[in-house]
Design goal:
The structure is a single chain. The protein is an all-beta fold. Helix content is about 0%, strand content about 55%. It is built from no helices and eleven strands. The chain has strands spanning about 1-5, 10-15, 20-25, 30-40, 45-50, 60, 70, 80-85, 90-100, 105-110, 115-119. Strands 2, 4, 5, 6, 9, 10 and 11 form a seven-stranded mixed β-sheet that branches.
Length: about 120
């Protein structure tokens, strides 16, 4: 089992920054990568960013490139998402997910944290 707990969401104005944190615990040695996803009302969950356990392989959705940065601590305890220049279209519930070795997709999810950006 892998446990994920997100924190750091909130209400901000357009142009502001927020830093989300995903605390990773449990069978961390099984985790190949951790990703951030988001889901806005009426929309499907979409990919935002991901990082592998080495920290050297990161990828981003086109909509957040240049504004968001994903990072991890050395012990794979937390995976952060620094979000700059937030826009109203970034409003969503943000989830972190864990992708385990040998699995076809992300198999564990946190409860989510709300990010609301006002114009």
């Amino acid at each position: 089992q892998v446990q994920l707990v997100e924190s750091g969401g909130g209400l901000v104005q357009a142009g502001a920054s927020l830093r989300l944190s995903c605390a990773v615990s449990g069978r961390k040695f099984d985790v190949y990568k951790v990703g951030w996803f988001r889901q806005a009302p009426g929309n499907e969950r979409e990919f935002v960013a991901a990082i592998d356990r080495s920290g050297s392989d990161t990828n981003y959705a086109d909509s957040v490139k240049g504004r968001f940065t994903i990072s991890m601590d050395n012990a794979w305890n937390t995976v952060d998402l620094q979000m700059n220049d937030l826009q109203p279209e970034d409003t969503a519930i943000y989830y972190c997910g864990a992708f385990q070795y040998g699995q076809p997709n992300y198999g564990y999810w946190g409860q989510g944290t709300q990010v609301t950006v006002s114009s």
